[in-house]
Amino acid sequence: MTPPIRLALHYVLLFGVTGVSLPFAGLWLKSLGLDGAEIGTLLAVPMLARFLTGPMIAVWADGFATRRAPIAILGWVAVAGYGAAALVEGYVLWTLCWFVAATATSAIIPLIDVLNLRVARREGFSFSVPRGCGSAAFVLANLAMGALLIQLPVAAVIVWIVAGSALMAVYAQFGLPAEVVSAAGRASGRNRFLGLGRLLADPVFMMALLAIGAVQASHGFYYGFSAILWTQQGLSTGLVGALWAGSVIIEIGFMWWLDPWRRRLGIGPWPMLAAGVGAGVLRWTALAFSPPLALLWPLQALHALTFAATYLAGVEIVERLAPEDAQTAAQTLSSTVSAGVLIGIATVLSGPLYDSYGAGGYLAMAGMAALGGLAALSLRRRLGSGRAGAGQG
């Protein structure tokens, strides 16, 4: 198999898991008797902890000879955590098991992104193409689980997640390209920590992470409670899965066709980030008013901008602002801020917002997306004509 196909297959397995855990974990947790605040807190704990776990895992991962080795190990940790969550009883134990599993799964994403970036640059293919295959798997997982839940108990959610994680771990160990970590990347643990410290001390780099992360984190309420809200509106689980799938189909089209076209035209990542901000404010504001099904479809199509455009812009901006020997740490920090600390805060707030205001909680997410836009605008002004070239590319 060619390197793009080998990478694409791992993205397929990875997002085959998250395509079920993101929209349907809330339903499974609710079936265990948890309320909105408990669900929000449980889901948020691993996100908030990523401020510590993310950098630690990044430094640990760069100590291996190949980039696939830590990905495989983290896959097996996820299997153990999710499997244990299905077997234990009690809120504390569920939270602990979910913390272990979700921490491992989320840590895989920046690691496979760095591997994809490296191989794509050397082999001459677009980073977004294998990544788009992961989005396609996300769609299929959405549709499949939505259909299965019509006939099966909600426990099918956790069974799927455990089985998918096991397949992902096996494939990472034997199927991913054996990309070697550079000698600079495998510097001593002390030097890797020093490189991480330099990134944390760079105000321009950290402002970029804040701008990107706020827009991505504005999905927190949507990830945790959209399935619950839509089923309360009378939509079937199959239709909920189709709504999620529809949003990701548009995302796939963006990654496979629009993003390569954007690169050929020389359009940099900053306009994409701006588009994500505007779409986020519009999407979350509209969803706060529980629109009818006819309006949900076009609002879901905005996912191509709120997620895909923002995600790809973030990967590109971070790659170009970070030094060559700190790429893993840089991408992990970005993931830590956006898919960790900020979305963790958003998810913690989402539980009480859902309990108190229902769909009105989306308005807080619109405000978070707007804050990301303000941070991006401030950063662009600060970069000026000097360092801006690195971010525009």
Number of helices: 16
Query: Could you tell me the mean pLDDT?
Result: 89
For the biggest sheet, the summary is: none
What fold name goes in the CATH topology slot?
Growth Hormone, Chain: A
**Rg to the nearest angstrom?**
20 Å
According to CATH, what is the class?
A: Mainly Alpha
The portion of residues forming beta strands comes to under 5%
The low-confidence runs, each spanning 5 or more residues with pLDDT under 50, are 385-393
Any idea how many domains?
A: 1
How is this fold's topology laid out?
Elements: H1 3-31, H2 36-61, H3 68-87, H4 91-123, H5 128-151, H6 156-174, H7 189-200, H8 203-217, H9 220-232, H10 237-264, H11 269-287, H12 293-301, H13 303-321, H14 327-357, H15 362-383, H16 388-392
Helix pairs in contact: 1-4, 1-5, 1-6, 1-9, 2-4, 2-14, 3-4, 3-6, 4-14, 5-10, 8-13, 8-14, 8-15, 9-14, 10-12, 10-13, 11-13, 11-15, 13-14
